[in-house]
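[job 0412] stage=fold_complex status=start
inputs:
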Amino acid sequence: GDSVTQMEGPVTLSEEACLTINCTYTATGYPSLFWYVQYPGEGLQLLLKATKADDKGSNKGFEATYRKETTSFHLEKGSVQVSDSAVYFCALSPRIRGGADGLTFGKGTHLIIQP
Amino acid sequence: DAGVTQSPTHLIKTRGQQVTLRCSPKSGHDTVSWYQQALGQGPQFIFQYYEEEERQRGNFPDRFSGHQFPNYSSELNVNALLLGDSALYLCASSLAAAGYRTDTQYFGPGTRLTVL
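[job 0412] stage=fold_complex status=done
writing structure:
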């Protein structure tokens, strides 16, 4: 079945540091890929997405590129802020014509940014 | 534009009881999915409803059931509650494009269920 593997956390960085959170996936076909963010006590918010190979999703300074050859979708940001502290989830959705698409999530990476 | 809403926010039940959680999708969305998120874990897919029918189900027992109403809102029912059912239950809505996969899922704030 489909699966998503993320780097274990917590990841602790200083403000203005560079961020990379690794995500690799296993899926049949050509899934869509997502990064969701969860702030304390809240639900999930979509951060960015990519629907086909070599697509780059971007939002709020975060970027991730869909790499089919390495089955990866790593999340990057050039300069993190304290407000970026949250839990980040990588997820995939199967591309099934006319079919359902329950998301498969990784376990999440807790990011802590220190001033 | 209202986003996905869920009720109640918190719920406390005892083992063996039954619970019903409710979800209203984002305006214009017609598909509702439910997820269970245990503490410190990623969400796990329970099932998805479209056109008032369950069209995909994850690896959850029959104690978990649902319903979708003509206005696209949805309920999640859990019978014979176990301690292990304690979790954050998330509802997500999306729009099904005719003849193709559904679009991005948008999540509600969740219902925190505690089973004692």
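[job 0412] summary: Chain A has a mean pLDDT of 92.
[job 0412] exit 0
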